[in-house]
């Protein structure tokens, strides 16, 4: 059996100018990065603004397991299938982070014959967007420390600095560090921290900004520290906004690539969904909507994280109105939720499937709370039996939820036609009455409680004293109307990764809260979640290499 990277490397790609031409994009609207990658120019993006928009389909999934769910693979295969059925389709995805590529999760280009290409480029440096975000973030950190060293005119309290440095790599040794050691000229000694780039506020701002003007306004609102009177100090106070924007001026243009079957893909931004808001950029999604009849996009991890944030943060901020949601599951993952160890998932086990399918059921219920029609798709594995597939189909139909089998990993777009037809039927026959879960008028504490109780199924929330103090401060500073961005484990509906299936009788532990004033949301850190992941005992990086001809191996 061929690996994902072998399949991708055998793909015959079209020049990006041809991919663009299929959408009516002129060549002079492209800023090319070689033959197969390009950015959409700023003047062209302005031309697209205000054009009629197509339908928006969100792809999400059940909670991830070691067995894999194939959310991106499904997104790509669905887009290819819709193209095969004659629909003008654009897929809008996030850019992969280097951390998972070299860690345990792998990249984010899809899999099998449903992939985005050039796969190696996408999963590694791509067009340099993440490097620009990292640089902008760390420029602000450098200017902050320099300001303190040069006299501290803003009266910053060095014990209340909240801005972290970052890099796009899993490096647990940088979570908590001390800076300023050495001679007097080396700065002020203080505790500091690193986050992974995809968890930073710059990444969130990058993905939510409408244009350069909006980007600069959001950058200016970033709170980097508090002064000795407990008043916020911002990036604008440090006069850092112009230089940060200069570093981001090319990065904020969305990137155009293609699938193996040449369906256009706009890839831009990449916040994690467990520690950030988990959606590609608003600019990419709106460009895709203006260029297509149907835009297929995805949100990170399970529907309790990425989809909730797509529906409660991104859609609210950008005025998006999703028309349908595709919820991805696998028989293997559902059996894992039913207590079957990873080594035994290939064997038929209807009892475990019945036990674990409640995880799917909870996600179905959650999505219906937003008023958007839902289609469940089962991402097929060769080990799935007909009895297992029939059980899942019957479970969905009993709950008045559309169902389709997906075989896109093995067959590409052809294997996604059944799903595509079900999605088209849903778009044609069911109206979307999208509304966010909560209104702006609730307090941040009430919003956190509502997500925990109605989405996770918790009995309530336990707030640490620190979290309560920060919530009170956020309200005092005028941020009460902000939505909340919940940072928690992706492996469970709860904040405990060991609680699989549909846990009950638990309370969510919120240990800390902070305001992302530029992004426009309040982050709640739940359980033991960290904003800088670590590498596993045997990182994927150990298996990656380059041969004498420059051909990458082992990336998947």
What does this structure look like?
This protein is α/β, with parallel strands linked by helices and 556 residues long. The protein has 20 helices and 25 strands. Strands 1, 2, 3, 4, 5, 6, 14, 15, 16, 17, 18 and 19 form a 12-stranded mixed beta sheet that branches. It has a 4-stranded mixed beta sheet with strand order 20-22-23-21. The radius of gyration is 23 Å and the shape is globular. The model has no long low-confidence stretch (mean pLDDT 95).
Integer average pLDDT = 95
Biggest sheet architecture? 12 strands, mixed
**Cα gyration radius (Å):** 23 Å
Instruction: Give me the count of strands.
Output: 25
Uncertain spans, ≥5 residues at pLDDT below 50? Answer: none
Shape, per Cα inertia axes? globular
Structural class: alpha/beta
**Helical stretch tally:** 20
What attributes does this structure have?
556 residues; alpha/beta; 12-stranded mixed beta sheet; 4-stranded mixed beta sheet; globular
Write the layout of secondary structure elements.
Blueprint: H1 4-10, H2 16-21, E1 30-32, E2 38-40, H3 42-48, E3 55-61, H4 71-84, E4 89-93, H5 98-102, E5 110-111, E6 114-117, H6 119-123, H7 129-149, E7 156-161, E8 165-167, E9 177-179, E10 190-192, E11 194-196, H8 201-208, H9 212-220, E12 223-227, E13 232-234, H10 241-248, E14 255-259, E15 264-267, H11 282-291, E16 294-298, H12 303-318, E17 324-329, H13 331-337, H14 350-356, H15 358-368, E18 374-379, H16 386-398, E19 402-406, H17 408-411, H18 417-429, H19 444-455, E20 460-463, H20 465-476, E21 484-487, E22 507-516, E23 521-526, E24 545-546, E25 552-553
Parallel strand pairs: 3-16, 3-17, 4-15, 4-16, 8-11, 17-18, 18-19, 20-22, 21-23
Antiparallel strand pairs: 1-2, 2-14, 5-6, 6-14, 7-12, 9-10, 12-13, 14-15, 22-23, 24-25
Helix pairs in contact: 4-18, 7-8, 7-10, 9-10, 13-14
